[in-house]
């Protein structure tokens, strides 16, 4: 019996499960390369999103010290590109 209406309860149909959830395709990116791809994607996103340079500085500095060479290279490139305009002039 239904606890709300007092009518007899209907039998439930079994839930349908998508086949791609049961048998997912293997990820074409190797596990070590997936993290590198995510880091590069985040750096590229921050560059394309037009965020204020001050908001991205901690991220770029941390990424420039990353042991993964492509990530460090991209972070250094972004630091040079985005902060060359905002840095105060050198000199005394």
Question: Key terms for this structure?
Answer:
92 residues; mainly alpha; 4 helices
Summed over residues and divided by their number, the pLDDT gives a mean of 81
Which overall shape is indicated by the principal axes computed on the Cα atoms? elongated
Compute the number of helices: 4
Give the topology string: H per helix, E per strand: HHHH
| Overall number of strands | 0
Biggest sheet character: none
Poorly predicted runs are none
Class inferred from helices and paired strands: mainly alpha
- What fraction strand? under 5%
Task: Describe what you observe in this structure.
The protein has 92 residues and is mainly alpha-helical. Helix content is 54%, strand content 0%. Helix 2 runs parallel beside helix 4 (69-83).
Gist?
With 92 residues, this protein is an all-alpha fold. It has four helices and no strands. It has a domain at 36-83.
